[in-house]
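SPFH domain-containing protein, Streptomyces musisoli. Tokens?
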Amino acid sequence: MADITRRFGWRHLRSAPTAHIRHHKRGRLAHDGRGLSFWYRSLSAALSEVPVDDRELAMAFHARTADFQDVTVQATVTYRISDPAEAANRLDFSVDPDSGKWRGAPLEQIATLLTETAQQHTLDVLARTPLAVALVDGVASVRERVATGLAAEPRLPATGIDVVAVRVVAIRPEAEVERALRTPAREQIQQEADRATYERRAVAVERERAIAENELASQIELARREEQLVDQRGTNARREAEEKAAADGVRTEAEAARKVRLAHADAEAARATGAARAEAQAAWLRVHGEVDPATLHALAATRLAENLPRIESVTLSPDVLTGLLARLGRPEGQEEA
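Tokens:
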């Protein structure tokens, strides 16, 4: 929308570069072009503002396929006004000289024209296309048909309108139908997931079986090695017992030999001791045989005194003492009368 200011009964208009302004004064074209700026009087001026930039028109409408299924088509048409003078002659682009606002709704008229034309060609295509094909290839076919139909529409160039591009965003069925169509794919995906789960479980079972077999093989190997260990321990124990028995035999033989030698030595010592004692006894007897009886009696009394218990005191009667003194005082070799 152009900017309009007031100064002392005059109006000043300043338009954008994307707006084409046509100014008629008393039935004659005074200004015509883009981005104009000029003064005018509102009572004698007739102004038109035609946008010449590219504009996007979003549209959504319902259609029916060949198998009588309702679908919703979402599309966008990009257009521009290439001939502002022709558009201003065919549509009401006039603006209020005081406010700069459009008196009518020209863009809505263009939108209605484009929407109805696009819808007509879309319905024509989808009415001959089954739903499954429309959902798969319908976007391309509808876009091509709408672009061709808009390019061949005679009213658009007569109004100065050029269609720049046509885009079909989506073709969607009703919610129930869409869920029904998704069901086979979901079931297939679920089957694939179940198959993957079963395969994963099978692989897990196979791995568990392999692990169990490995554990069993390990146990068998351990048992075999334990058996070998027991056999080896028995062999070692027998060998140790044999070695110990042999060592005990050698030790016993050595001890017996030592005892025999000791016995022989003891016997020899005993014989030598006996012989020495016999010789000593013989000599003792020989000596005692050569000694007089009085000496022997004295020796016997001495030996007896050595072996008698300790006597604290001895009491002798006068008779015994007199006889003993008389015997001791008798000369050697003289007997009692």
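Confidence is low (pLDDT under 50) at residues 332-337.
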